[in-house]
Every structure is written in structure tokens, then in C-alpha cells.
Design a protein that fits this description.
Layout (H helix, E strand, L loop, with lengths): L1 H17 L2 H7 L1 H7 L17 E10 L3 E6 L2 E6 L2 H9 L9 E5 L4 E4 L29 H9 L33 H13 L3 H11 L7 H9 L13 H10 L4 H7 L10 H18 L7 H21 L17 E9 L10 E9 L7 H9 L8 E9 L3 E10 L2 E8 L2 H20 L3 E9 L18
Parallel strand pairs: 10-11
Antiparallel strand pairs: 1-2, 1-4, 2-3, 3-5, 6-7, 7-8, 8-9, 9-10
């Protein structure tokens, strides 16, 4: 009896190991969307799949021939094809963590719950992140999946870093299922961005620190110097014109600007287009100089990581339904997540910080103004159709977050300051904000300063200032 059981067990193991990646993808609804581009089902009865390639992100090696990979539908353990192993013997970077793999659809694979041991310890000084107010993304949305996958709390602030701190650490990928029905190209962009992104603050600090070095190709030096003008001063963001200019330079709208450009017209350079050009120029310089004596490989990797970070912001800003086409209609909801680079020590210094900004419009959640004020007076939290969330971490202020809500002429402002001195200063200045809002004919529903990091709204009696007669 034991012999029969052992034989049956061995047969089942062999069946699992022989399961193809394409078959596994077709069996998982979410992952099937990713595999549709590279694998087609032969119908009932288990007919063979086309021997196409399926894209996956390498999470970690498991032995010498197996690897744990991430697909659009989750994680899988795969047997790496001999051709890929031979390529890795010549170039080990082919199988480094976060690499994009093109796997045959018939490669043996089995689904797994997620990585058990994969971990990359980030540099705390380079990846400092501040949690934003809760509920920034609805459950099941692409933004929520990206936040969980990368460990990012959006909007994310990044403190200024010093030049020469080395390459910033790569974030650890976390197990997560992507939203149902996500198109395969979009799923691939999500996985690549999550695996390859780097924080913008240390990326820009390191790149700008190279701008003054001698011996760089003139084209590359020009691109590095042009990055200085794409950062904002903290004071400039206090004006509507300065904030508008910073948003235009952020890189979030590069593709839409290219689509709207007239034939022969070149859109104004922004952060994403500059990083893309910088990476291409660095790659060309590396190929022209065997051995990479000038460190062009590091420059290219930094530019790539910064580009992927901006791409994550763009993906998080997509509408919940990929079929939605944005218009200028005031009744349509949207959410924009942006990272704005700052020059806290002046435009000529390489130190860079990043302010996280999220702009949200959810008109369907807006109650009637009189109902909103009545419910706020009873301590009931009501959503505002317009919200702006800000996260900032400067040396002078420490981590600071704010949430601004707007409903008609009713406004709510909440500020969180981690440093006690900054919280005291904010309370001292709150009267100036109150006078400015009142002078602009706003009805002030809430005006609060909190100590520490952001948290759910407290249920306090009379947490607002009622100025009605």
C-alpha cells in the first residue's frame, strides 16, 4: 500500500512540475489577462498552447535552475529554460533581482503564495516615506495595488539626501493581486515599474552631483545640468503659478503632451523626458567606452529608476476603469498622484527633496452643502468632492502632511507635524490662514493642527468653527 501511495505522490509531483506557465496563467483569471498576449488556449481538453513568450519579473533564484517570479496574477515558481541559463553564465545580471524575464509559454511552473525569503534592505536615509491620510485609494484599485506592492504610501515625501551616498536601494516587491481585467501591456508596465523604480530624491541628488565632474561627454553634461532647472524652490510652490509650473515639469503629462503636439512640434522638456534622454545618452557612452571607466552604467541605472518612479505615479493616476477616457467635464472624478522635486538648498546645490501631492475629485460623494455642514457639526465625517493631500519632509520642518477639502465654498484644512516645534509654529500661524480663508469668502468647516503623523480623523465635540449667524 505504501508503495502505491509513494508512486501516486511522485506522479502528482511530476504532474505539477510539468504544468506549463501558459496553463497556469489561463487557470488564474487575473493572470490570464497578462498571459493573453503571449499564450492562447487551445480550448477544452488541454490542447497545446502557442510557444510564445510570457513576461515575468524575477523575485529571487531558488537553486541554480529554478526561480520565483512575479506575474500579473501573482507569483510562480518556474524552471528556467537552458537558453536563459546559458545567457546568465555569460552575463550574471540577466538573473538579478528585478530583471524582466521572457519565458516560453511551455516552461514548467507552479503557483506559489508569494516570496518567503526575498528581501532587499532599503537605505533608510534614501527611502524615507511618510504615510498619507488613510483611504487614499479605494480597495481593489490599481493605486491600492501599487501602494501595497511597493510599500509606498502615496503621496510620498522624500527628505533631501547628501551627494555621494551611493546608489539608493531597490524596493522589495510584495505579494499582491492586480485588479481584474487589467490589460496585459498595463500589467507589464506595473510589474516593471514596481521592480525597477528608485526614489527620486536620491536619484536626482546623485545625478546632479555628477554634473560638475570633468571628462563627461558634452551631451551628457548638458542633460545633467538641465535637470537643475526642473526642480522647484519651496517658496515657489506657495504661489498658484509656481505650483502650476511644477506640475507641468513633473513628467506626469509627458505622453499626453506628445499626443497633443502638432506635427514637428517638440513639447517643453519635463522630468520624465529628461531622464529618458539621460539614460539613452549614458547607455550610448557606455557602449562607446569598453569597461565603463566613467561609470555610465550607474548613471543609466539612476535615470531608469527615476523614470520608473514617475511611471508609478502615472499608473496610480489612471482611472479605476481602464476604458474610461478623461474629459474636461466637471462631473467626472479623477485622482492625480505627483512627485514634485525641490531644491531646498538652492538651484545650484545638488541636494534634492520631493514633495508628494495628490489631487482628487469625487463628485458623486458630495452631499448638499446644508447637509454637509449639519453632519460636520455633529462630528460626522463627510467626504469632500475635492481633496488635496500634501506630504513634505524638509530639514527645517521635519515630516509635515496636510489634507485640504473643498465643497463649494466650504473648506476643511488639517495639518500633521511630527516635530513639536513645527506643530507649535503651525498653531501660531493658523490665525493667518483663518483670516485668509475668511477674506476669500470660504465657510471654514475645520481647521486643525495635529501632532505626529497622520491618522484617522478624531471624533471631537465641535471640531469646527461655525461662523454662520
Amino acid at each position: 500500500m505504501s508503495t502505491v501511495l509513494a508512486a501516486a505522490t511522485a506522479a502528482k509531483i511530476q504532474e505539477i512540475r510539468a504544468q506549463s506557465l501558459a496553463t497556469m496563467l489561463a487557470a488564474v483569471n487575473a493572470a490570464g489577462q497578462s498571459g493573453a498576449a503571449g499564450a492562447r488556449s487551445g480550448g477544452a481538453g488541454g490542447a497545446p498552447f502557442d510557444a510564445a513568450q510570457i513576461r515575468a519579473i524575477l523575485v529571487e533564484m531558488q537553486g541554480t535552475t529554478r526561480a520565483l517570479v512575479q506575474l500579473a496574477g501573482g507569483y510562480a515558481e518556474v524552471e528556467l529554460p537552458p537558453a536563459l541559463l546559458r545567457q546568465a553564465a555569460v552575463d550574471p545580471s540577466v538573473l538579478k533581482q528585478g530583471a524582466l524575464l521572457l519565458l516560453p509559454a511551455d516552461v514548467p511552473a507552479r503557483p506559489v503564495p508569494g516570496p518567503a525569503t526575498a528581501h532587499v534592505t532599503p537605505n533608510p536615509a534614501a527611502t524615507l516615506q511618510q504615510p498619507g491620510p488613510p483611504g487614499a485609494f479605494p480597495p481593489g484599485s490599481l493605486g491600492a495595488a501599487l501602494s501595497r506592492m511597493t510599500g509606498l504610501a502615496l503621496p510620498a515625501a522624500e527628505s533631501a539626501t547628501r551627494p555621494g551616498q551611493g546608489m539608493p536601494a531597490q524596493a522589495t516587491l510584495r505579494p499582491v493581486m492586480l485588479p481584474q481585467g487589467l490589460p496585459a501591456p498595463l500589467a507589464e508596465a506595473v510589474l516593471q515599474g514596481a521592480a525597477r523604480h528608485l526614489p527620486l530624491a536620491p536619484v536626482l541628488t546623485a545625478l546632479l552631483g555628477k554634473a560638475s565632474e570633468t571628462g563627461l561627454p558634452p551631451a551628457l553634461q548638458g542633460l545633467l545640468q538641465s535637470l537643475q532647472g526642473l526642480r522647484s524652490s519651496p517658496a515657489s510652490l506657495a504661489t498658484p503659478e509656481g505650483l502650476q509650473s511644477a506640475l507641468a515639469r513633473s513628467g506626469l503629462f509627458l505622453e499626453s503632451n506628445l499626443a497633443r503636439a502638432l506635427p514637428g512640434q517638440v513639447p517643453t522638456a519635463d522630468l520624465k523626458s529628461s531622464l529618458v534622454a539621460l539614460r539613452q545618452t549614458a547607455d550610448q557612452a557606455r557602449q562607446a567606452a569598453p569597461g565603463d571607466p566613467a561609470g555610465m552604467g550607474d548613471l543609466a541605472r539612476l535615470a531608469e529608476g527615476g523614470t520608473e518612479r514617475i511611471k508609478l505615479m502615472q499608473l496610480a493616476s489612471l482611472p479605476a476603469n481602464p476604458e474610461i477616457v478623461r474629459t474636461d467635464e466637471a462631473g467626472q472624478g479623477f485622482r492625480l498622484s505627483v512627485s514634485l522635486p525641490l531644491a531646498p538648498q538652492g538651484p545650484d546645490r545638488p541636494q534634492t527633496a520631493v514633495m508628494g501631492l495628490m489631487i482628487e475629485h469625487q463628485p458623486d460623494n458630495a452631499p448638499a452643502p446644508e447637509d454637509a455642514l449639519r453632519q460636520e457639526s455633529n462630528g460626522e465625517a463627510q467626504p469632500f468632492p475635492w481633496k488635496v493631500r500634501i506630504a513634505l519632509d524638509l530639514e527645517e520642518t521635519g515630516p509635515v502632511e496636510a489634507e485640504i477639502g473643498l465643497r463649494g465654498q466650504s473648506v476643511s484644512v488639517q495639518v500633521w507635524a511630527e516635530q513639536p516645534a513645527m506643530a507649535r509654529l503651525a498653531r501660531q500661524k493658523i490665525g493667518d490662514l483663518h483670516r485668509s480663508l475668511s477674506g476669500a469668502a470660504f465657510e471654514i468647516v475645520r481647521l486643525d493642527v495635529h501632532d505626529g503623523r497622520s491618522a484617522p480623523r478624531p471624533s471631537l465635540p465641535n471640531p469646527y468653527l461655525d461662523r454662520r449667524p
